Amino acid sequence: NVYKDIADLLEDENYDDGSYGPVFVRLAWHSSGTYDKKTRTGGSSGATIRHAPESEHGANAGLDVARRRLEPLKQKYRNISYGDLYTLAGVVGVQELGGPTVQWRPGRSDKLADACTPDGRLPDAAQGADHVRDIFYRMGFDDREIAALVGAHALGRCHTTRSGYDGPWNASPTAFTNFFYTELLENTWVQKKWDGPKQFVDKPTGAFMMLPADMAFKTDPRFRTYIELYARDQDTFFNDFSAAFAKLLELGVKFPEDAPTYRFKTLD
Q: Which of the residues are catalytic?
């Protein structure tokens, strides 16, 4: 069972906060989030994120770690495409870290390097609400879906060696929760004093961080409506995230007519 084998790869006390789950979610999201609805290019079908130059785009720094971790499963299950493997790993990461069930379908095909998407299709963390909307509207998402997807920042941390930013968003970076929203609204955020790129840290401890693009969800009135909703109501967040993430993973994919839809049970 591929799901179980991916889940067995998650825990590693020597990696980051002890789990590959967050970086698997990021791999799935970055391989899917290149979709352009106008040109119908990009997206998870093709798994072009494994080829240069796309693999070397700044937004994808550090994702080679996730691809290497999954490679033995590609050798074990030779019939699964890289596109299916990477997106399923994202589903496993969300579900096994306590998040909602995300429905998933197989049927992506793999493409060569000439299908790589141009740099600049993924969000730039240094930008504000207008940029965030430009990126996600291009894929076909609305404000509510965008606000739900950013909640995945409950997971993981930033690394100076990858994005240049530093730190986790909250105290439980290996648990899928609505903590991104509660921290964003309830904590006090100040600009970090350091030589790195502009980011924010929580005033009480300096242990947690927010990116400039994260702060835009607090200051933009339309986004803030949904941020407040998800901070109050984790169940609504889980439902909305599940639908938006499933949509993200399927952008631009031409599934076979007989492709089954899976709703995997978690291992516990």
A: 30, 169
